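re: ur question from the group chat, yeah i did fold both. here u go
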Amino acid sequence: MMGRMSVDDPDPVALALRLVVVALGLGLVVLGGRVAVTRRFPVAWARVAHLTETQRSEPLRRGGSLALIGASVLVQQLPFLVSVPHAVGRALLAVALLLVLGAAACWALVRR
């Protein structure tokens, strides 16, 4: 069973991986929020992903889901980077799961 980790953890590789995951989660929140608010995909994203016309017509659906998934990643990583009581860690896990369910609901319910 894996023990609790924190920023004071002596294993620098595990800490570096957690910080990379946090950075990616933050990037998902920023990118997804930008797409959902502006209702436009970044040009580079549209080129690289080769989005079809149907996919390009639903930026709110894709951006909102992406932002919620990023928020879930951030909330899930918080107990590993900041020392919190066990009960708070469990509550944060529940919030992360609710955010994933919210992303799925956003994906399923938001249509053009």
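okk and heres the other one u asked abt
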Amino acid sequence: MPELPEVEGLALDLAGRLKDRAVARVDLAAFSALKTFDPPLSALNGLMVDGVGRHGKFLDFDVSGLHLVVHLARAGWIRWKDEVPATPPRPSNKSPLAARVVLDDDSGLDITEAGTKKSLAIYLVRDPQDVPGVARLGPDPLDDAFTIDVLSAILQKAGRAQVKGVLREQGTIAGIGNAYSDELLHAAKISPFAPASGIEGDRLQTLYDAIRTVLGDAVERSRGLAAADLKGEKKSNMAVHGRTGLPCPVCGDVVREVSFADSSLQYCATCQTGGKPLADRRMSKLLK
């Protein structure tokens, strides 16, 4: 799933490509992806793109005051096309194409979603806050307003909830998903199942520093990359996420995994849990 650094990278790349370009039309290929009806997509025809931004994991195309907001969900992506087909795409359940934005010189971008589970969402609104998911977002962890005191208040309010889940909750902190929550906790040497309210003092400072550093470094690595290169950049710089069975780059211990119904987490027992493997939550009580 694209998370804060990749979505920021996409926004930076697309902002450079789309600035002061006119939208010729938007072709919708997956009708279920469009979540709004007023204004219609045809309202974008002939309007200029003023910029591309980000709200958490949401991409925001500012088109002369209208906002085309896209949530890429688990398997969505943006693919730049130097030349798009002249014929609009036909709706198809088998095609990964959800929508195509055609520009005034026949270049454009495809909004795609792989797999059969379709969760990608497209909104056309007058204000990004009209998108329910954007309106519910918590603070952005790279914003100057996200201080250590803000993080402390979030963790204390969460009580004994597991810290990994707290970091992933978009209404609590915007933009962190499964992959980067693994990475942040590994960098901070904290168990993913540690109770949030127990993270205080030096551990709180370490977690705060990890959030700012890991995410900030990932954004900087993404800066200047084309959309096609962002996924590879993310994967190649993961310390534990997606690296089950490989050595931890910090201590050399094997990276372990806990599986859930529709996801998994990765961690290093030596770095994060005092050498104790975490139990599978489906089978036994979690270790802290």
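fwiw on the second one: Helices lie at 4-18, 132-135, 148-158, 163-168, 178-188, 201-222, 227-236, 269-272. The chain has two domains: 4-135, 148-272. idk if thats what u expected
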